[in-house]
Amino acid sequence: MGTKWTVGRKLAAGFAVALTALLVVGAVSYRSMSQLIENAAWVAHTHEVLQELESLLSLLKDAETGQRGYLISRQKSFLEPYTVALTRYPDRFREIRKLTSDNPNQQRRLDTLEPLLVARVDVLRANIEKQDKDEKVTIDLSRGKQLMDDIRRVVQDMEAEERDLLDRRVADEAESVRIAKLVIVLGSLVAVVLVAVIGVVITRGITGPLRTVTDLSRRVAEGDLRDETLTITSSDEIAQLAGTADRMLKSLRDLTGRISSVTATLGGAAAEILASVQQQAAGTKEQAATVQEITTTMEEISQSGAQISGKAKQVAAAAEAASAASASGSRAVQEMSRGMAAIREQVEEVAENIVGVSEKTQAVGEIIATVNDIAERSNLLALNAAIEAAGAGDHGSRFSVVADEMKNLADQAKDSTVQVRTILGEIQKGINTSVMLTEEAVKRVEAGKQQADVTEQTIRQLAETTVESVRAFEQIVGAGGQQQIGFEQVAQGMRDIRQAASQTAASTTQLEAAAANLTALGRALNEAVGRYKL
Amino acid sequence: MTPKRRRIDWDQLRTRLAAAREAAADHVLSPERVEAIYRERAEALARPRTEADRASGFRVLEVEVGGERFGVDLRDVAEVLPFDGGTPVPGGPSELVGVVNVRGDLRSVTDLGRLLGVTGSNILGFVVLIRGAEAALRVDRAEAVRTIELAADARPDSPFVRGVTADRLRVLDTAALLAHPVFRGPSGKE
Questions:
Q1: Composition of chain B by helix, strand, coil, percent to 5
Q2: B51-183 — its CATH code?
Q3: Residues of chain B with C-beta less than 8 angstroms from the C-beta of A437
Q4: What is d(CA A379, CA B143) in angstroms, rounded to the nearest whole number?
Q5: CB distance A60 to A110 below 8 Å
Q6: What secondary structure does DSSP assign to A405-417, as a single string?
Q7: Which residue ranges does the record assign to the CheW-like domain (chain B) (predicted)?
């Protein structure tokens, strides 16, 4: 039996051998039994043929007897066996022909028997008809006896044939039974031996490797995971089981190693968790303190908000008043601006008048120049007159006085023109100053008007700003209310946070205990894994 | 520009304006002023000629050139005319400022300032015609005729100055002046 075969295949092969032996024995037994039954049937058949032959002869004898009785007694009642025989014998004959249809010898004999039977019956029927006509019946006994003997001989041959067949079939039957016995006994023995041998072989092929695997499993159960590769060369299910067990061992070793490292990691992580939980507990306490501070601060802010709201209402009222004041201020400034424009027009008229006066002073200046020129000429004239007077000596002394007087007048005229020119210069200076002042005034009025415009614009902006401020303060007041609501909500939130913080503290305590448990669990796991020898 | 705000008395202003208007409309001097002028003139005329005038005093034409005053003996002066610039003479001496036409006679005008070494001014000034000569002197101003007396102790600082008065008027020596080469040049007609 090959070592590459699987256990199932081995078992199947063993059962196949055993079944083959059983089949052989069974087949032989069946064949013997069939032959016995067939032989028995054939014996019965032979007996039946013999009986039918007997019956046919008997019917012929009945017909002869009836005829003989009628011939003797001339009474029709004796004819009854005859008529019965006549009606029945063809059936018998056909039966016999059918029964022996497989036997050509018997058929050939029946072919010879049939005319003999017809001839015999004709003889009987002729005798009876003669008797009926009251004719002299010359019984041809010899012919009747001849026919009858022939018939008997044929029948006897047939019977002999059948009996001979019967003997041969009995002998066959006995032979069959003997062979069947032999085959059954020998076949059974062979089957028993084969099944025993196969059983031993299969058992040995399965149990050995199974024991190796079992040993391995036992070592694993005891915690020995040291590497020991199983030496199983076959490739059946046991070998697969051994391979699987081997892999399982490796996986288990791997798993245990990983569990060991994970346990170490777990221990570290548990310690870290514990530390974190302790930090969290401290943090929670700080959080509670902070929440307390925030709550206090929020209350203070809330009070401040209420104060702000009150102040904002006051400011809003003040802003309303300022808005009204700025409206009247705006009107006043507009009137002032108009007044400024009027002043400007008048000042400009003044400037024009002054310019007219200035132009007149120019004419005056020209006149003064003329007068001055005359004075210069008069002066020169007086000078020359004095010179002439001097040239005349003592005679010219009186003229010299007149010349001096003329000279004096000319000098006075010159002085007057100088004075007038000085005054005119002062007038022109004054006019210039006035023009400049007027120009300055116009500029100032213009500036004042611009200032008034700017002021008006500023007041308008101020009014708008005031209105905006009023709105803004209204919003502030509204917002202050909302803020109060918000502060209430924040206070509620702070209370919730404080509650949550206390819950967190409780949870942290539980967490601390859980972390301690985790540490203990890691230690226990480490001990459990340490039991395995790697 | 009077930063000090002064309230204007418009009534007073109107009164002053009316007075000014009235004064301008009269076009006459006040009687007192006219009386004063008359008296002054009469006093001047009534002043008797002093002894000094007769003895050593003589009359001079007071001229001014380059800011300095000089006196020219009135007896040497023929006429004083306004100087119109004249006609320039090309190639002439620097003292010759030009030629003027005096009623048909051509006169060469010599700048007195340049003659005396006094820096002149830019104005045209006057021309003093010298009697008995063709000379004409340009001066800045011909002021007046005065009767003067030479101071005895004063030393003339220039060859052209005859003497100096007590009030530092330097009287020119007309003869010495006319002896200047400029008057005897090619154009001179001595």
A1: 30, 30, 40
A2: 2.40.50.180
A3: 1
A4: 9
A5: no
A6: HHHHHHHHHHHHH
A7: 57-190
pLDDT in tens, B75-92: 889 999 999 888 888 888
Interface of A with B in 361-400 (CB under 8 A): 380, 383-384, 386-387, 390-391, 397, 400
Do A184 and A261 fall into the same domain?
no
Kindly report the CATH number assigned to the domain that includes residue A487.
1.10.287
| Closest by CA position to A70, among listed A61, A60, A82 | A82
Q: Is A519 within 8 Å of A270 (Cβ atoms)?
A: yes
The answer to whether residue A404 neighbours chain B at the CB level (below 8 Å) is yes
Q: Residue A159 falls within a domain, yes or no?
A: yes
Question: Could you tell me the two tokens for A316?
Answer: 């809003």
- What whole-number distance in Å separates Cα of residue A56 and Cα of residue A50? 10
Tell me, yes or no, whether A23 lies in a domain.
yes
- C-alpha separations of A129 from A74, A85, A124, A473 in Å: 12, 17, 9, 166
Q: % helix / strand / coil in chain A, to the nearest 5?
A: 95, 0, 5
Q: Which amino acid is at A504?
A: T
Q: Do A383 and B75 touch (CB under 8 A)?
A: no
Name the residue among A383, A391, A405 with its Cβ closest to that of B142. Answer: A383
Range of the domain at A457: 251-530
As averages over each run of 10 residues, the pLDDT of chain A (534 residues) reads 67 81 82 81 86 87 85 82 84 86 85 85 82 71 79 87 84 80 83 83 79 82 73 71 80 82 81 84 84 84 81 80 83 86 87 86 88 88 87 79 84 87 88 86 85 84 80 79 82 84 83 82 80 74
Pairing of strands B58-65, B161-164: unpaired
Kindly state whether residues A114 and A261 are assigned to the same domain: no
Of A167, A192, A217, the residue that ends a domain is A192
Smallest CA–CA distance from A432 into chain B, residue: B1
What residue spans define the domains of chain B? Answer: 10-46, 51-183
Q: For residue A225, tell me if it sits in a domain.
A: no
State whether A168 and A268 are in the same domain: no
Specify if A80 maps to a domain: yes
